[in-house]
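step=encode ok
step=design start
structure_in=
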């Protein structure tokens, strides 16, 4: 927030952006058509959000899309994303940590569905849309009417609220927290954790001046996780098959010789 009082239009736009984003993923996301056309619908929503931001007076630089800061964003984003990719890969390769990657939402996907999920649904429908909406437009809109820490806190809180429905669905799909109280506590914890992640993504956006930085970290986390889940399941299945084959009892040599003599006598008519 700059020294002068914000205009009513700026306050109204920031409040409307908070309200729309708090409800979008929790309400629109329930619709079957949204689930079916997820990348296309969210890409249109991102375009509409950018158009609304431009109409409110926000520039491409304000929302982190300025070309002059792109290189800085790519550099910082790559440095932040590399440890995430390495950690997920290591978790998939280590037998002790593979159970942590169990996710039934990914387990039912075949190769083609997994490719669609990782190459289209997540980059376009999730990462690009969420970063444009939160670290781009919402963050810029809030900073016209609030001090920087308050704007970051508000945007991060809305980002946490955005994930309430997905968190509840993930718990149900994986049969976790079956009781109502446990489910509420788990969803609250996930929302709080997501808000903290939003604050980290906002930090990367501020530090680099570009949306490229949070986009790369967000993509590394959301895009690598399903691949790590699939790899962990494949390696676990392979290890299970190997262990089963090792546990099969070997036929004693004397039984092999006895069976051979019996077959020989049968062929000789004895």
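sequence_out=
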């Amino acid at each position: 927030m700059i020294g002068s009082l914000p205009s009513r239009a700026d306050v109204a736009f920031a409040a409307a952006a908070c309200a729309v984003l708090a409800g979008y993923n929790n309400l629109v996301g329930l619709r079957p058509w949204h689930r079916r056309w997820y990348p296309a619908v969210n890409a249109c929503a991102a375009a509409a959000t950018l158009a609304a931001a431009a109409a409110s007076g926000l520039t491409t630089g304000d929302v982190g899309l300025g070309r002059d800061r792109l290189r800085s964003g790519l550099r910082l984003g790559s440095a932040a994303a590399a440890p995430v990719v390495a950690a997920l890969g290591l978790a998939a390769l280590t037998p002790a940590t593979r159970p942590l990657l169990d996710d039934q939402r990914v387990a039912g996907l075949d190769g083609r569905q997994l490719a669609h999920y990782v190459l289209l649904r997540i980059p376009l429908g999730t990462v690009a849309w969420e970063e444009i909406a939160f670290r781009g437009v919402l963050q810029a809109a809030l900073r016209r009417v609030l001090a920087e820490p308050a704007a970051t806190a508000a945007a991060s809180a809305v980002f946490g609220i955005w994930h309430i429905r997905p968190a509840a669905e993930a718990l149900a799909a994986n049969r976790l927290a079956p009781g109502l109280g446990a489910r509420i506590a788990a969803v609250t914890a996930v929302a709080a954790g997501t808000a903290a992640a939003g604050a980290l993504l906002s930090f990367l956006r501020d530090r680099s001046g570009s949306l490229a930085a949070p986009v790369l970290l967000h993509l590394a986390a959301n895009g690598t996780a399903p691949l790590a889940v699939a790899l962990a399941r494949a390696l676990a299945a392979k290890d299970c098959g190997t262990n089963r084959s090792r546990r099969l009892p070997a036929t004693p040599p004397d039984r092999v010789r006895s069976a051979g003599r019996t077959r020989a006598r049968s062929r000789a008519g004895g």
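step=design ok
step=annotate ok -> The chain has one domain: 9-239.
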